Amino acid sequence: MVLTISFCAVVSLIFVLLITTGLSGAITSIWFWSSLCLLSLLLFLHFTFRSFLSGLRNDIVALTSKALSHNEQIKHSEFRNRILSLVDLERLSDAIESIAEKATKDISELKRLEQVRSEFLGNVSHELRTPIFSIQGYLETLIDGAIDDPEVRDEFLEKAHNNMLRLHSLLNDLIEVSRIESGAMKMSFRYFDLLALATGVVSAMESTANMAEITFYLEAKGKDRDGKIMALGDRKHIEQALVNLVDNAIKYNRRGGEVRVALASIDSTVHVSVSDTGIGIPPEHLNRIFERFYRVDKGRSRDVGGSGLGLAIVKHIIEAHGSQIAVQSLPETGTSFNFALSRD
Fold first, then answer.
1. How far apart are CA 312 and CA 248, in angstroms?
2. pTM, to two decimals
């Protein structure tokens, strides 16, 4: 605006000189040549500043368009052929703030994932080290001469074998979790008799429950005319989830306790519940029990065995079926896990 006013003033001065003194008089006037020089300078500044603003506007358009593309708000076409204004600068400021906020969130998420990765590697190393060192110790003892003692030999071989089974189970669960989280595990959805599946799981684990003096109960409501409770899902993985839940219900129960598996068909949904009368879970641990390798009572968990991945696998399987698994628990009273499957 200043350049425009100055330009108009100089042009007016030149015209005044031409009118008052004529062309020959203006040519010999120092004011005339000074005005022409000033006019040339103003024209130079005008085109230079215009070129600078054009480049600046293009840069702002590109930066703002790129920033706003993350939020899908407006397109850079709105800035085309428009004079640079405070609105553009405000939008650029908002866009930069949006980029900074998103970058901060991304950095925080990367730090969290890095911490999770470090914890996971540490837990895996610890879980693998325990059975490997145990097997190594038993074998070294046998090599050092204990193999000649039949009683010691049989005991150590049995313990080494149990640790090998534990190691095998841990590796299988690690592979399963890796397949689930990477998306390599494919679900095969079919209609199947959920009641028959639950009956088979209870029967398969009844001997384990009897050894711990635990009583099984299987309840079923809403059976169809054929005595079935049909559900839609991946039968193999739902069986794996039920086995893990029932196994936990037995391990963390008390002698003389109960494990109850309940199915209830309501409209287009089958509700599944696995409950126990065991030691329960303190409230501060409930939101973390589905994390990999998380253990509420590390000492007891080591005694009863397991990989520490069972509930993480259950959670992934249930979520892959479009459902959520919920848990209710009271210390020294018991725990109940619940989820639902579709019938449609």
1. 13
2. 0.60
The mean pLDDT value of the chain amounts to 78
- Which pLDDT value is given to residue 270? 95
Instruction: Give yes or no for a contact between 221 and 331, defined as CB atoms under 8 angstroms apart.
Output: no
Tell me the pLDDT band of 60, cut-offs 50, 70 and 90: low
Outline where DSSP puts E strands in the chain: 190-193, 215-221, 230-233, 258-266, 269-276, 326-330, 334-342
Residues 6+ apart with CB under 8 A from 250: 205, 208, 209, 212, 214, 259, 276
Fold category of 190-342 in CATH: Heat Shock Protein 90 (3.30.565)
Which of the 8 DSSP states describes residue 187? Answer: P
CB 340 within 8 A of CB 268: no
Cα–Cα distance for residue pair 31/37, rounded to 1 Å: 10
Res 100 pLDDT > 50: yes
Backbone region of residue 308 per phi and psi (left: phi > 0; alpha: psi in -120 to 50; beta: other values): left
Phi, psi of 119 (to 5 degrees): -65, -40
All structural domains of the chain with their residue ranges: 2-84, 106-182, 190-342
Would you state the pLDDT for residue 201?
93
**Is the domain covering 106-182 a CATH 2.60.40.760 domain?**
no
Tokens of 64: 């703002």
Which tokens belong to 147? Answer: 């193999």
Is 72 a residue whose pLDDT tops 60?
A: no
Q: Which residues pair with 273 in a beta bridge?
A: 262, 338
Q: Which residues contact 5 (CB under 8 A, 6 or more apart)?
A: none
Number of neighbours of residue 149 by Cβ within 10 angstroms: 12
Would strands 269-276 and 334-342 be described as parallel, antiparallel, or unpaired? antiparallel
